[in-house]
Design brief:
This protein is α/β, with parallel strands linked by helices. The chain has a single domain, classed as FMN-linked oxidoreductases (TIM Barrel, Alpha-Beta Barrel). The chain contains ten helices and eight strands. Strand 1, helix 2 and strand 2 form a beta-alpha-beta unit. Helix 2 packs parallel to helix 10 and helix 7 packs parallel to helix 8. The longest helix has 18 residues. It is globular.
């Protein structure tokens, strides 16, 4: 079964999924090996790999991860040079909340032929940057502003679905002070039918619960685990009991 079909199946069953995000620039070598051992004990649904600036570190990270675990690895990349062909799938992102053409279509054009020839499963994803209370790396790199008005966020999500995005990703930014609010998640959930990923600023099981109750299909946690890697099991167990 493809990764996307797994996501659709879980959504139909009202079963939330959990993804651990690894940034190869911050987690590598023995630290990565040790972290994957923790992940193996927790068994999240996916490992997202991204946030790095160098292709080689992404490729090496995925090679290491896949040697140590059977948890599916999904690319979550910021630009075209980071693509590598040893992942199980990738979120083919377009930053629909911004108006920078390079992140709406430019980077995608640069990598499209290589990705298609690789055979890696690609999942068209409408990426919406939400104001998380602090300037995020995505905001800096993409030179775009996050959205804060609920109506505009909802309209953007609807447009993304109508344009053919198979997933909508609501992102508050790595290390956000505030996660995506329950109200935003609820309103987007009411207006789009595709799976909904929520990430950024999730740092407690209560926050996970709130996002799930509001309608999130996949929860992504990364920055928090860089500080508290031992919390992976607690978070995974919380989602599995839903």
């Amino acid at each position: 079964m493809s990764i996307y079909n797994q996501i659709l199946k879980a959504k139909t069953e009202h079963r939330p999924l959990f993804a651990v995000l690894i940034d190869p620039e911050k987690c590598f070598g023995q630290k990565l090996v040790d972290f994957v051992k923790i992940i193996n004990a927790a068994l999240p649904d996916f490992i997202f790999v991204g946030g790095s600036q160098m292709q080689s570190s992404v490729q090496q990270a995925i090679t290491t991860i896949k040697e140590l675990t059977k948890v599916p690895v999904v690319l979550f990349l910021g630009n075209s040079i980071q693509f590598c062909d040893n992942a199980d799938a990738m979120l083919f992102l377009t930053l629909i909340s911004g108006r920078n053409p390079d992140f709406l279509i430019g980077q995608q054009v640069k990598s499209a032929r290589k990705i298609k020839q690789s055979g890696v499963e690609t999942i068209s994803t409408g990426y919406i940057l939400i104001d998380g209370g602090k300037k995020s790396a995505v905001q800096s790199v993409s030179a775009t502003e996050p959205l804060s008005e609920i109506d505009k966020i909802v309209d953007t999500a609807i447009a993304g679905e109508m344009l053919g995005c198979k997933i909508i990703y609501l992102e508050a930014g790595s290390g956000a002070q505030n996660p995506v609010s329950e109200q935003i998640i609820k309103e987007v959930r009411k207006n789009v039918s595709v799976p909904l990923i929520v990430g950024g600023g999730l740092r407690s099981v209560e926050m996970l619960q709130n996002a799930i109750d509001a309608g999130a299909d996949i929860l992504v946690v990364g920055n928090f685990f860089e500080i508290f890697p031992e919390k992976v099991t607690e978070f995974a167990e919380k989602i599995k009991t839903k």
